[in-house]
Specification:
- Two copies of one chain form a homodimer.
- Chain A is α+β, with helices and mostly antiparallel strands.
- Chain A has a single domain, classed as Alpha-Beta Complex (Phosphoribosyl-aminoimidazole Synthetase, Chain A, domain 2), CATH 3.90.650.10.
- In chain A, the strands form three sheets. Chain A has a seven-stranded mixed β-sheet with strand order 9-11-8-12-10-13-14. In chain A, strands 1-2-7-5-6 form a five-stranded mixed β-sheet, covered by helices on one side. In chain A, strands 3-4 form a two-stranded antiparallel ribbon.
- In chain A, a hairpin with a 5-residue loop joins strand 13 and strand 14.
- The longest helix of chain A has 18 residues.
Chain lengths: ~325, ~325
């Protein structure tokens, strides 16, 4: 249904004339030097270990702007609430949205609230939009890229060149596996928590070093989908090394139990960065200095020697990493 | 529940530091000279005489930006779709969104689509966000206001002064009464249709004349709510004259049948403008030249002689126009 929808939606409503429009299907659109994004959130349950729908929404929107290299300047939030929703729960979600926005230092400027009769939505949905602009960090990053022979404007998915180093800002699969474990009742004995967090400051730290050519947050479809999109849109292969991929033991354990590849599930507080080789070590250090980046790792590189995404496995072989078909864990974002 | 929500939401998530923030509860927020708005739409049924949820969403967002005096530059749309929704209906809604956006000349730059299991939403919800900037029309309007001794930046709800003339861009109550008649089965024998339409060009035409100090679209709570908000936020009374209020006969007939005051129901293609007296006639003519403004009328004025909103009735009396308590017609926007 998703592909069908995407086609239906794009065919009729795209009238894009900005710098990065709907057709690009990038993290955000850019028009008139304003980065603009929107995301609807329907996670079930509304609260889960490590987060809730409010924190998820704020983080997701900030990260979509940050993944373009922009600095977010404001958020807008639209709530659709089912009549009879527990007001204490609603209150906790609101507190959580405010806390996540404060953590990021970004105001929620405008909002809308609709209450619908029972059955109109399941509990509540939170749709957040955000705007951002090129900040000092991106301007500096552009200069450093230029020093290394690269013309980088926004950190779009199309910017990878042969040899660019791929970093991930932390452990893989935490959000999707935490939610699924919780739903299935496997989560209670572990400390498995969602990673949902705003990453604008982490990204600004990376760009303050400079040399970042592209960034993308591996949400729906996980790392596997994210890397495939980068490879496809940049017309270049990607090689990653399984031994370098950071995983929490609890995620590996639960994934095995649930029969799910953690590369295929959504992360909500992670960023994949592509960096020119000369600056990759320094950028990795900068990312690690951020609390949400302490487990950051260098996981591979863009490579014209392969097609698609190829992983050197722990046991010495190689396998193709395909994007997942459909969503292995529905309603996690 | 609404007041409760508004309090709950505002208390925690407002971290506004823009020019017009969440606390102002104006049509849109303004930060960094960018006008920014969001609106969630849950209308039932999804298609109705004269429109559908897609046209409603696009029009509503464009009008919230236009009501600030800004020129919209881009829209974003987030769809939450119930699994199994009729794809032909979805297709028609998408076509309709595209058509409304083209009518307004504004691109839908970015979007998000989530499919949820049956019962997750009722059919679909459409949340739209929009950004706008001060265009040439607003800059000209600011100058003309200044010539008449008025410092007007954005067309906020706080700008009314004693003697400002109030115009409405067309007939009152069409959207709410059309939807309710249709739902109740009374609509079939009339040509009663929703007025949902984007009004950015109409507003630009009015500002090209100049002297517009405030604008607001009378959506939820209708004209009664809109005028009361203007009066309250501007700390001035409002006098209107019932004989000048434009109504379609079909709206009056259906309102009587349904026992609903059409001043209390939402309009989705109308604007109330406050204009300095010297320019009111000319602005009215400009609004009437626009296809969506042909029934525009001058309906009253801001007045320090009264408190709240007072209407001179047809029969020669006077009555206070109170804002409606709750929504007389739920789920129409």
């Amino acid at each position: 249904m998703h592909t069908l929808l995407k086609k239906a939606v794009l065919r009729h409503i795209s009238t894009g004339k900005g710098e990065v429009g709907l057709e690009a299907l990038d993290d955000s659109a850019v028009i008139d030097d304003i980065v603009f994004t929107i995301d609807g959130h329907t996670v079930q349950p509304l609260e889960y270990p490590g987060g809730d729908i409010g924190r998820l929404a704020v983080s997701g929107t900030i990260n979509d702007i940050s993944a373009m290299g922009a600095s977010p300047i404001a958020l807008a939030s639209s709530l659709i609430i089912e009549e009879g929703l527990d007001l204490d729960l609603l209150d906790r979600v609101m507190v959580s949205m405010g806390k996540a926005a404060n953590e990021a230092g970004i105001p929620i400027m405008t909002g809308d609230t609709k209450v619908v009769e029972r059955g109109g939505v399941k509990g509540m949905t939170v749709t957040t939009a955000g705007i951002g602009r090129a900040g000092n960090a991106l301007l500096h990053n552009r200069n450093v890229c230029k020093e290394h022979g690269r013309e980088v404007h926004w950190l779009t998915d199309t910017n990878l060149h042969d040899g660019d180093i791929l970093l991930i800002s932390g452990t893989i699969g935490d959000h999707g596996i935490a939610i699924l474990s919780f739903r299935e009742g496997y989560g209670f004995e572990t400390d498995l928590e969602s990673d949902n967090a705003p990453l604008n400051k982490l990204m600004e730290g990376a760009m303050d070093v400079g040399g970042v050519v592209s960034a993308k947050d591996p949400t729906r479809g996980g790392v596997a989908n994210c890397l495939n999109e980068l490879a496809e849109k940049s017309h270049i292969g990607i090689e990653i090394d399984e031994t370098t991929l950071p995983f929490k033991d609890a995620v590996l354990g639960a994934s095995e139990l649930l029969g799910i590849d953690p590369l295929n599930v959504g992360n909500e507080g992670k960023m994949i960065l592509a960096v020119v080789p000369q600056k990759a070590g320094e950028v990795l250090e900068a990312v690690r200095r951020h609390p949400n980046g302490k487990d950051a790792a260098s996981i591979g590189k863009a490579s014209s020697r392969v097609k698609g995404v190829v992983m050197a496995t722990k046991v010495g072989g190689r396998r193709i990493v395909e994007p997942p078909i459909g969503d292995p864990v529905p309603r996690i974002c």
